Amino acid sequence: MNFIGKVVVLLKEGVFDPQGVTIKNALHNLSFSQVSRVRTGKYFEVEFEADSESEAENQLKSMCQELLSNPVIEEYSFQVETE
Amino acid sequence: MNFIGKVVVLLKEGVFDPQGVTIKNALHNLSFSQVSRVRTGKYFEVEFEADSESEAENQLKSMCQELLSNPVIEEYSFQVETE
Question: Of A30, B8, B52, B53, which residue is least crowded by CB atoms under 10 Å?
């Protein structure tokens, strides 16, 4: 079966996010003064084969831990969809 | 009312994504040979105030078009949640 894993990787709460601060300030300069905070992160769509949805979730979890995220400073979340 | 806008920005289909190719190759080297494709993108969480959900959606759409995405090569999608 073919799956698409949709992965979001964010800096953990408490880790300084200078890109988010810069984007918030840029939005203020564009008159979006109602913005109080911006968090930035990475997004991945991974297309892969697996025998079942639970196996797909296990495989994607391993990919997140081994390559897609840095567990020291980042947290990840994902959902798996059938293609 | 306080809202959180969750924005995903991806390269349009057809735009070369060298980072995605690199990650796919790295996953193959880590024995995830079942991966056929990786798309990379950006993710933003924007916390802001608006009077209603429809106004929040309109504001976030403007932010995406004016700053968060490059409409020449990128496409965006978002959802708005009440905080």
Answer: B52
